[in-house]
Amino acid sequence: MKEKPALFQVERLELAFALKPWAFAIEKRAEIDAYFAELRRAKPSIWNGRVLLLHHQVVRDGVFYGDYLETDYASFSAWRHWGTPPAGVRDCFGAAALLASDGAFLLGVMATHTFNAGEIYFPCGTPDPGDIVDGKVDLETSVRRELKEETGLDAGELDAAPGWTTVVDGALIAQIKLMRAAEPAERLRARMLRHLAREEQPELSDIMIVRGPRDFTAAMSRFVTAFLALHFGVR
């Protein structure tokens, strides 16, 4: 049985980038290319861009330190599809936990054309080279961008809590930023749905309101339910 995700608080992130080959992507190239060609036939809109994966991390004195390498999305998606076998990396990304003024959280339902179709989680995304600033990987910028792209909400209108909640679930590390809104959940959801309606091909198909553990579903990612359980005081 898979272990439960581990959660802890960190004051800040110190994340660096340096060119480094990923042995998995080199050694499995033929299998990866075959897998991705099949994936593209099923989901033609998926693009083989560049992503960043964590290859070293340590937590010291309340700071999460890490180093990223760069690879192609085909290799990353194949690694995930094959169950994230040991490959010297972790999928470490930032996520926005959007908390409405009435105490509810808002989550996105991934659209059918996406890799994670049907899954429910906070606005987030695997970091890419656009998140590198002066050799550092800026997950706060990544979170703000994903929030805007997926929901239409501007992080400037939200109150971002200090620090991060780090959720470790096997090869996945979610760095969650709590972001409080001044509006209730139903009003926020309506705004977000209007944004989705304006998009030609939105990443999300719906917005789900979570007011407590009774709203948890099997489609929610484990890092999401672990964070929400902590917030709602569920053991």
Task: Give a verbal description of the structure.
With 235 residues, the chain is α+β, with helices and mostly antiparallel strands. It has one domain: Nucleoside Triphosphate Pyrophosphohydrolase, CATH 3.90.79. It has helices at 23-27, 29-42, 73-81, 139-151, 185-198, 222-231; strands spanning 6-10, 12-17, 50-60, 63-72, 91-99, 105-110, 120-121, 124-125, 132-133, 136-137, 159-160, 164-169, 172-180, 204-210. A hairpin with a 2-residue loop joins strand 3 (50-60) and strand 4 (63-72). The chain is globular.
**Beta-strand residue percentage:** 25-35%
Report how far apart the termini are: 18 Å
Query: CATH top level?
Result: Alpha Beta
Class computed from helices, strands and strand pairing: alpha+beta
**What is CATH's topology name?**
Nucleoside Triphosphate Pyrophosphohydrolase
Number of domains: 1
Order of helices and strands: EEHHEEHEEEEEEHEEEHEH
CATH superfamily: Nucleoside Triphosphate Pyrophosphohydrolase
Count of helix runs:
6
Low-confidence stretches: none
- Radius of gyration of CA atoms, rounded to a whole number: 17 Å
Instruction: Indicate the CATH architecture.
Output: Alpha-Beta Complex
Based on DSSP secondary structure assignment, what is the total number of beta strands? 14
Q: Summarize the amount of helix as a percent range.
A: 25-40%
What kind of sheet is the major sheet? 9 strands, mixed
* Average predicted confidence as pLDDT: 95
Overall, the morphology is globular
